[in-house]
Amino acid sequence: MIILLVGTGAREHALARALSLDPAVSQLHAAPGNPGIATLATVDGDPVTLHGVDATDPVAVASLAGAVKADLVVVGPEAPLVAGVADAVRGAGIPVFGPSGKAAMLEGSKAFAKEVMAAADVPTAEPRVCRTSSELEEALDTFGAPHVVKDDGLAAGKGVVVTSDRREAIEHGEAIIDAGGVVVIEDFLDGPEVSLFCLCDGETVVPLQPAQDFKRAYDADAGPNTGGMGAYSPLPWAPADLVDEVVRTVAQPTVDEMARRGTPFVGVLYCGLALTSKGTRVVEFNARFGDPETQVVLARLATPLAGVLLAAAEGRLADLPPLAWRDDAAVTVVVAAQNYPDAPRKGDEITGIDEAEQIDTVHVLHAGTALDHRGTLLSNGGRVLSVTALGATLDEARERAYQGVDRIVLPGSHHRRDIAARAAAGENLLEA
After folding, report:
1. 2-97: what fold?
2. Please, which pLDDT band fits residue 49 given cuts at 50, 70 and 90?
3. Among 41, 101, 227, 315, which one is least packed by beta carbons within 10 Å?
4. What is the pTM of this model?
5. Where are the beta strands (DSSP E) in 85-126?
6. DSSP for 205-256?
7. Residue 95, SS3 per DSSP
């Protein structure tokens, strides 16, 4: 099987790693990829700059898929999906794992996602859609603190502010409106958050294992929201029937509603959930694998990945046997550049990755990296690396992941030291 993987981040590196380990995959191509992915795949573009096909250009991606004779195209990030890359690839007669542009609006517009959830009777926070400052202030007063203020459109995981400070909530909302955007104000959901990825083929839903990520920049959930600073799986404190419940009450009704609308959803339905005192509620939908949760979920998946993604692309998920999972726990820790998430510094040399990967089960996934003309690895983004490890227990996986982090040298970098700490200590987050 020849596969073209679209994207540049640690999520795509995790996908590339899983696909490269699948004996059914004979060739793996990536556009534009990154220096880590380039060790596993043929990267389209210059090996230093990685400039090549624009991942958000539907015609260019479809043309590349045809040129490499791809049997399957896997689209990683949200922006190409919303841009209609999957539509163009399907139009060229090539199977693609990723929703159409219209179906990807489940992520592209939070207001649209709320509309679909209401039609499908999916439990979620009550929303108010605001296009003016007066509507914004009225909605904030209606719900009260803590205030949940979201950018309706794509914001790379950083468009949400949760605050008890009304002035901060107004400033965030007005900045979105002033930029021509739409604001969604929601009722605050208490309880721990969980991510569950569901593979969909337009009709059938196959869930993966749940994970939990850490959105705040610093330990103890301090600091601003980020794209995610680490994750772990499994969740020993989560209800045993959580996955079945989410498929029954969230994922399957949503997939059925999208099919009813004539926009079948093919790809990953990322269910961001809050396990509240009133039951499980949807915080948000995404239309692709999440980062950094993908890093730990795929590390635990024992079933070869390529055949599963092809079955989803071809509408054959119902024919597959149940997925197999390793008993091991997985933890990933994100190494971020200096000043992330505000104004991350780029161009610092990275060393120690080979030393980190000498630790049993540790692998390092590239996100914001680049090579200079001498072949030196440099930081080139906010979240630079994801250090991932397996262990017989969460505690062992944590220990290995942090041993790996400690061997990596990136001047000015920072990372959280508390990823999975509470769960590893046996704390029941539902009672916290």
Report:
1. Rossmann fold (3.40.50)
2. low
3. 315
4. 0.91
5. 96-97
6. EEE---BEE--EEEGGGEEEE-S-SEEEE--TTS-TTHHHHHIIIIIHHHHH
7. coil
